[in-house]
Each structure stands twice: as C-alpha cells, then as structure tokens.
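User: Okay, second chain of the day. Same drill as before: sequence in, structure tokens out.
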Amino acid sequence: MRFVLGAAGHLVEQYPVTSRFQAVDTAHTVPHQGVDLAIPAGTDILAPAKGVVSRVMDLGDQSLGKAVYLKLQSGNEVILGHLSKINVRAGQVVEAGQKLAESGSTGYSTGPHLHIGLKSAAGQLIDPQPIVQVLQRPGFWERATDGAIIPNLLGKSKEAAMSAANELTLDIVRTALSWLATTGLALAVEGLLLWSMVCLLIGVSGSGKWVTKGTKAFLFSTLLGVAGRAV
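Assistant: Same drill. Structure tokens below.
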C-alpha cells in the first residue's frame, strides 16, 4: 500500500513514519508527543478535516518551530509542526483538504519532516494515529496526485473505479508491449507479476470484471510480443 497525505495522493513509501507516539529514541529523550513523517520540505500540508485554526506559532529554532493548531468539530486539536510556510491565520475556518502550510525543518529538527500531534477535547495529548490514517488515506489529496491512478482508485465510486481500471489496463498493455520490444520476455514476466498486484488492488474496489479483462489483455499482448520477436 502506498502512503498518501490526504484528499490528494502522495505515495506511502515516500513519507514513512520515522517516530511514533510515545517513542524514546536518539531524537526524543522523553516520550514523543506525536508522530513524525519524513516529508520533503515544501510539500503542501492539507487539513485532515474541517475545523478552526486555533493557533499559529513561530518558535524559531526551538520546539516545533513554525506550527499550526487546528481545532476539529469533535473538540480534538491537531498540531502540525516544523513547517516552512504557514498559509492560514488564527480564527480561520478551513475545510477538509484545504492547504494549511508547507512542510519544512524549522524548530528543533534534524531534517525535513512533519510532526503530527493530537490533543483531546480535555486537553490531553493522545495518540494521533487516527489523524495519520486520514492523511494516509488513498485518494485524499487529489490536487497532488499528478494523474496517479492507484493511490486514488480505492477512494472512488464503483463506476469511477471501473473507468480508472480500464485506463490502467490499457497503460499496462502498452507498457508490456514496450518492454517486450526492447528487453524481451523477462521484464514482461515481471510486468505480469506487477499486474497481479494491481488486480488485487482493483479487486478490493469491486471492479472484478476489469481484473479479468485486464489480465486477458495483458497475457494476449505478451503472446503477441513474443511472437513478434520470434519472426
């Protein structure tokens, strides 16, 4: 599964969790009060849910550096730290998916990353994993997908998923033919294994008929490619 930051589609492996809630490590000599994600500086940070910006801070080279506090309708408060640029002001109402800031490495930081904290309505710091899961949801950050299909596929309607699967099938077939024309059967076999993984993802979204159609098309194109090279 690939990692996504919310209504738009950055991929999971790109932004791994580097420090979990309550972790004690070389960067945190006391239990960590949030979750850290390794995100390149300048990445758009979007609101995980509708809320009100309760605080905007700039602590210089201390603590979270530039940070945004977002009060959710549930009463919980999301804390986003080590930002390079803040695009909202205190008191501003924001919608889910609206840009809040850009990631960075301000404050006490060893490199570009995003700190995500969560306070309960009672003011206690709690595990922000539910917020992290929203930020990782496939298809959440659609403005940042750059046309990527897989990260968004599972978040679409059945009709949209089928259409996306059909387009993906055509892309896979074209790629397979290209591989066969340039590098032979080995990469085509690797492509078939890749397609099996794609089928699993599409199957979860309820687009089973496209899995069958796509697999047949891929195998047929592979045979055509092999026959063409043998001539």
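The beta strands are 17-19, 35-37, 44-46, 51-58, 66-72, 77-86, 93-94, 99-103, 114-119, 125-126.

User: Thanks, on to the next one.
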